[in-house]
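Quick one: structure tokens for this chain, please?
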Amino acid sequence: MTIDGKTRTCGLIGNPVEHTLSPVIHNTLADRLGHNMVYVPFLVEEDRVEEAVKGAFALNLLGMNVTVPYKSEVIGSLKEIDSLAEKIGAVNTLVRTEGGYKGYNTDMEGLYRAMDSEGIRIRGEEIILLGAGGAARAVAYLCASKGAAKVYMLNRTKEKAQTVSREVNQAMGSEVIVPMMLEEYGSLPDRQFLAIQGTSVGLSPHVEDVVIADREFYQKIHTGFDLIYSPWETKFMHLVKEGGGKAYNGLKMLLYQGIIAYELWNDVSVSEEDAMIVYDRMKENFI
């Protein structure tokens, strides 16, 4: 990589950022596609997000990614926001425009591409969604917008699931999201489901934790997708496999959300061949 006066800079703002694999994604793509661009992480302290966004624009940064805990807070610092990101209430990608940044959410389209690459479909499926927090809320929007037949949102507190379900159903003009408490899973229809694990439960170092421990629950799952990618195989994934289903982690979601951001910044289309080269590089740096 040659850095000169024409090099464009992109980066990541969050706290913490030391663990991020995003530089692997974007610097590999820049190298593969011959773009004079470099990507670096920026640690932003609490209550300094607005300063960070203004500073990035003043320094002529081409674009930014946003990670926890600032995906919602950053919205107030944007010139414009994409309609999907506005509905979800979270932004993870900033694209430079005249006068400021436009915010996008590439996480959900990244999840959709990741699932599609594994042959997992959403349209027409009945889906179990674990959680009702920010990530699960976004997944609920994705599933509703991509034609899921029904999404059973299982959460520790039913009130939160009801709030999210009402919001998504109203936005989508349908009654696709069904709120339930975790312990109500026994009342689910007698069939197998696609299940998406949308909580932080099981995230390293708490690798033995799982939202639902009952092995009978996992007999209901033909395919499980965990948004977590560390550890490589979560307890949720292990139990899905033990129950006879297929299970996937969230590393490809991370890959594709990054690819979509790169495409927005550089107005290009990344080939699946290049995507898999980046994915292999990510695994080398992760495993």
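The two ends are 25 Å apart (CA to CA).
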